Amino acid sequence: MVVGNHPWCDAGWEKCPLAGEGKEAVDRKSITLEQEELIKQAFAANPRTVVVLRASFPYAINRTQERVPAIVHTTNSSQGGGNALADVLFGDYKPGGKLVDTWPKSLDQLPPTMDYDPRHWRTYMYFKGESLDPFGFGLSYTTANAFPANAQIVVSFGITNSGTRAGDEVVQLYVKHSESNEELKGFQRISLRPGETKTVKLPSAAKLLAHFDEAQGTSVVLEETRHLADRQFIGAYPAGTEDRSRVRE
């Protein structure tokens, strides 16, 4: 079943009847998906329901994520969106996309709208608590295992398709500084046949490892980040989401 928001609220200028929807000139008043009750009814009738969330922004779909075996997220795209979605659902295309923002579990996890200090839980680097899904999260139709090969300026590592079908994966490199969460420093999308292993190289120039120091007023490479292998996360999923790497049955 397909749920989500209408790109312009199906209403006139500066009008959005549903609190969870928004557009230019209309701020969202909620991040609750109004159709979650409809999803609950569909799932009760068919436990193998696949939910397609066609949404322009994050929704706190806590109940749906806990119960529904598969969720596909897509934005409000073009006239060919239906055909593209069908290709994904029927296995003709290998999905491998990742979230470009953090999806919170509730509205109270977000800072006040007029608070522009990024350290106050704003952006994925400073978000505190447990999110619904973190920045960089996304599954494929297969599983992939990454393992470090070296920790030079160009970070090289192997990745193996450990599943039974071909798939695309976006491998990601994160570096953590003491004052923030892991920060994305590189990524690459690759295609793998079942059982195939490839070596991926991600450049990590010193400037990419720099952290802005307020006292010095400039970006510096801190001592802790010079030991990249001790602080890095390499793989297909952000830290803490590995347990979601398989679709529930």
List the helices and strands and how they pair.
Blueprint: E1 2-4, H1 36-45, E2 50-54, H2 62-67, E3 70-74, H3 81-89, E4 144-148, E5 154-161, E6 167-176, E7 182-192, E8 197-203, E9 211-213, E10 218-220, H4 223-226, H5 228-231, E11 232-235
Parallel strand pairs: 1-2, 2-3
Antiparallel strand pairs: 4-5, 5-8, 6-7, 6-11, 9-10
Describe this structure in words.
- The chain has 249 residues and is an alpha+beta fold.
- The protein is 13% helix and 26% strand.
- It has five helices and eleven strands, in the order βαβαβαβββββββααβ.
- The chain has helices at 36-45, 62-67, 81-89, 223-226, 228-231; strands at residues 2-4, 50-54, 70-74, 144-148, 154-161, 167-176, 182-192, 197-203, 211-213, 218-220, 232-235.
- The strands form four sheets. Strands 1-2-3 form a three-stranded parallel sheet, with no helix packed on it. A three-stranded antiparallel sheet has the order 4-5-8, with no helix packed on it.
- The longest helix is centred in the N-terminal third of the chain and has 10 residues, at 36-45.
- The chain starts with a strand and ends in a 14-residue tail after the last strand.
- Mean pLDDT is 81; it is low at 224-234 and 243-249.
Sum this structure up briefly.
With 249 residues, the protein is of the alpha+beta class. 13% of the residues lie in helices and 26% in strands. It has helices at residues 36-45, 62-67, 81-89, 223-226, 228-231; strands spanning 2-4, 50-54, 70-74, 144-148, 154-161, 167-176, 182-192, 197-203, 211-213, 218-220, 232-235.
